[in-house]
Amino acid sequence: MSYALEMSTGDMRQVVRLLTAVERTPEQEEHLGRVRERCKALDIRLQSQGVDFEVPVIRALEELIDGAPSRNMCQAYTHAFHEVVTSCFSYTTDLGSWRRMSWFQTVSNDLARNGIPAALLPETFLFSGPPLPLPDTGDIHPRIGTLSMRRAAEAATAYTAVLDRVHPDCQDTVRRFTEAFRFEVDDWRPHSTADTLFFWFD
Question: Considering the entire predicted model, what is its pTM?
Answer without folding.
Answer: 0.94
